Amino acid sequence: MLKKRVALFGGAFDPVHNGHVQVASVVATDFIDEVWFVP
Question: Which of 9, 14, 29, 30 has the most neighbouring CB atoms within 10 Å?
Fold first, then answer.
């Protein structure tokens, strides 16, 4: 069984904008399984 690869993306996110989403999308597509936003 493979372990799920999760990235924690910490920041203020006030508000979340397209730049945050784009970074998370690229990382999730290329390197990991999930991105969790941590305010």
Answer: 9
